[in-house]
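Lab meeting prep.
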Amino acid sequence: MRRSTLLVVLFCFGCSSAKTVPRPISPSAEEITEIHLERTGSPLGDCSAFKVTLHRDGTADYWGDACVIRKGQHRGNFDQYYFDKLAQLIASQGFFEMKDRYPDNGTVILDAVNSVIKVTHSGKQTSIFDNARRGLVELWAIEMLIDATIEKVEWEKRVEGTNKTLKREHVSPTATKAPG
């Protein structure tokens, strides 16, 4: 009995004196300054291709390329509340601890929807590539909330190469063209 007690005490002492490696602290929602989504579609399905950057100050930049109603450069404004909620979701869902690509085995699935989510925080950028929507469900939720947030933006078409705008639009930039 004494021997087993001594072993338990020695084991516990050894565990408590072992050095632990501190984990890097994840950025808080308040440290996030930009959220960027770039999506390239598949020729076999959803072919939408666009880039959007949401800024903490409630402004947004958008560039639509293919299979979207809104093509070209756009700039807009939205309620900062949506950015704050999106930043909270990103921080709470472990975005900064996720792998930098999915699938994480190096496989690239061709003819698939691809997304890149980039989050700028404390002067640094964390980027995750999601090939064929093979990422974690938490990554999918973040992407879906980005889509929902960009629908809240009041967009203005930019004249290429200038700071001029043409008109204010309320159509979702992620909506695809109607068939026909």
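Slide two material, second protein:
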Amino acid sequence: MPAPAPVDSSPAFRYEPPNLAVDLVPRADLAAVVAGRFERRLTVLVAGPGFGKTTLLAQATLANRLTESGIDAWLRLDPADQDPQHLIGGLARALTGSGQRSAPVLEDLVSSVWSFAPQPVALVLDDAHHLGAADPAWHVLAELLESLPANGHLVIAGRSMPRVPVRRMQADDLALVIDEDAMAFTAGDLEVFARTRGVPPELLADLPTWPALAVLTAAVGHQASAGYLWDEVVSGLEPGRRALLARAALFDVVDDDLLDALAPGEGHTTARLVDGLPLVDADRLGSVRLHALWADALRGELGAADWRDALLAGAESFLARRQFRRAVDAFADAGDTDIAHRLRDVYGKPFMLNGGFDAESANDVIKRELAVAVSFGTLYIANPDLVERFEVGAELNVPDASTYYTGGDIGFLDYPELSGR
């Protein structure tokens, strides 16, 4: 029987680009470059926070819905995508628009791309920095680049160069990199920005080319360092609103239900909370995404106890809505050590745990009735006789993550058994 696909209750931001602001700077030249994603195997956007990577990709994908040059499959990555199965499952859902009954493998994804031929397909991955140094996830993307059919293309946006063979593909004219220099505002961009934002003419010459800093400068009305501008933006907020923003900024996506959990009975809405604030994205369902720079600006607003209480309140809200993965992440960030117990009580069905267990810890959670079973994945790959090793207390082979999702026998059939056969 195939393994069940993980439940994905991610908000719309994961599979849809954010709405474009009415005062968007069009950036036509850059948009034309990104439009070429259907003509090259790999397009990379690499820049620090606030350079407009997400906005540029959203502009390109939404424009494509009018021109229909190809098919865009949008996926905003998060730390859970460091798990290759979660990453592949997300890509599959982004492409097909629905989840699958069984956990997909890379070959399924490649076949799905090919099924759209001759239409070109671009898999658009935003926030790739969330993969960090997770070699298995990057290995999946590198393998995907090698395996995609002729109509398949990959777009990766993040704060650092992706861990795939970008330079080699550039040498073969298969890849294009758009960096901070390219994404900085030009003089023409600044003129459009100043006109749409009502920036006084005397401030135009002082507008910075870093898009996020230009937004803050326009919001405050004068030039200064990024830190000073953030101080002015934050200090200008009413204290209760500032405190709620600080709690909301702990989460990747914010909606009215989450705000009600963070400030029970106060009747806050996301629309009122972010009204007039810079560097905020909205989706079609009314959820908002505060730019990562907000979390940095508001970091000092919460004490350790308030910070933990906010994470726990958010986790309980996610649990009530059966958004289990978000709940687990929030409980873990809060340092809660009883996650399994909380999940079991809400889920209300036979509960099985997986991940990070050995024989002793697995037996412990079963004795404590936190789960009816514990499953093993990577340990079984490296130890085909895992049960026998557990029974006799033998040393375990260490799994080699670099061989995952590569195909062939290496890393799957060549680990030594306990008997030495």
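Talking points for slide two:
The chain has four domains: 12-183, 193-235, 239-320, 350-421.
The first strand starts at residue 42 and ends at 46.
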